[in-house]
Amino acid sequence: MPLPKAELHLHIEGTLEPELAFELAARNGVTLPYADTEDLREAYRFDDLQSFLDLYYGLMAVLRTERDFADLADAYLARAAAQGVRHAEIFFDPQAHLARGVSMGTVVEGLWRALGDSEARHGVSTRLIMCFLRDESAESAMDTLMAAKPHLDRITGVGLDSAEVGHPPVKFREVYEAAAALGLRRVAHAGEEGPPEYITEALDVLGVERVDHGLRCMEDPELVARLVRDRIPLTLCPLSNVRLRAVDALADHPLPAMLEAGLRCTVNSDDPAYFGGYIGDNFDALPLTDEQQRELARNSFLAAFLEDDEERRAA
Ligand code: HPA
Ligand code: ZN
């Protein structure tokens, strides 16, 4: 039996396996610039975050209908359940779909078709977190938040992802203030490729409750002390870090040292179809003791947004 755990850093578009990509391409009459699934997998050699993002956004062309988003999410939830996931907080990137003429309603209601049945079908409870693309403008992020208003009963929080360097958290101050006023929880990617200062800014300016990745905090001992003191959860993704070259090799991954430092770390899969494994594979990739594995699993539930959204909004 795999260890029960919560997954807190998972981009649903990053679960698009090559086989499903070709199936959806055929269903929607989309021509992919790859001969077959093997040819596509050959392209999964990344130099950094941007080289991955180029492929990730490109392949989204096959996602067009509610059914496509439902099939994508249901396939992820089945795989996650098999690796012990009992609760999943799922990121989605609406701007990448709106830009292709796919509506917010298609994306959210499509995902919800799978998420709404997930407890019954897979034994996995779910939350949705809408991410803003930080390399797009703050105005575009605000427009996206407004477009999501009719769907807020489906959305628990907001996040910030895409190309990090040069797009500091402060750019999104007003958007996060508006999200907080709407009762949304707040997280942000910070300290993946960007400097430790972006982590501090995400906490101080955006008011985030969790930091996604955050591994570059290790360059700043005062920041580490603050994160430990305030028990700020970090959602680490070891296989992603190696594939995108945030760390040189799994043996160099700072996660064991981060646990040692007292940080509230969790292990997650980020974009499992692209990075060579789902959450259990990420746990297995690192030299962790049984006690460390249990600590990581415990942290994942402590860091989850598990209370009822309606109760929280009414409070
Ligand atoms: N970092 C930033 N943006 C992303 C990622 C990531 O790891 N995955 C999907 N969008
Ligand atoms: Zn991510």
What does this structure look like?
This protein has one domain: TIM Barrel (Alpha-Beta Barrel), CATH 3.20.20. Helix 10 links the parallel strand 5 and strand 6. It has an eight-stranded parallel β-sheet. The model has no long low-confidence stretch (mean pLDDT about 95). Helix content is about 45%, strand content about 15%. It has 17 helices and eight strands. The chain is an alpha/beta fold and about 325 residues long. The structure holds hypoxanthine and zinc ion (ZN). The site of zinc ion (ZN) has 6 residues, from strand 1. The site of hypoxanthine has 11 residues, from helix 3.
Number of domains: 1
SSE pattern: EHHHHEHHHEHEHEHEHEHHEHHHH
Oligomer: single chain
Look at the helices and sheets and give the structural class: alpha/beta
Keywords: Hydrolase, Metal-binding, Nucleotide metabolism, Zinc
Active site: 192 (proton donor)
GO molecular function: hydrolase activity
Organism: Streptomyces broussonetiae
Keywords:
315 residues, alpha/beta, TIM Barrel, eight-stranded parallel β-sheet, binds hypoxanthine, binds zinc ion, nucleotide metabolism, metal-binding, Adenine deaminase
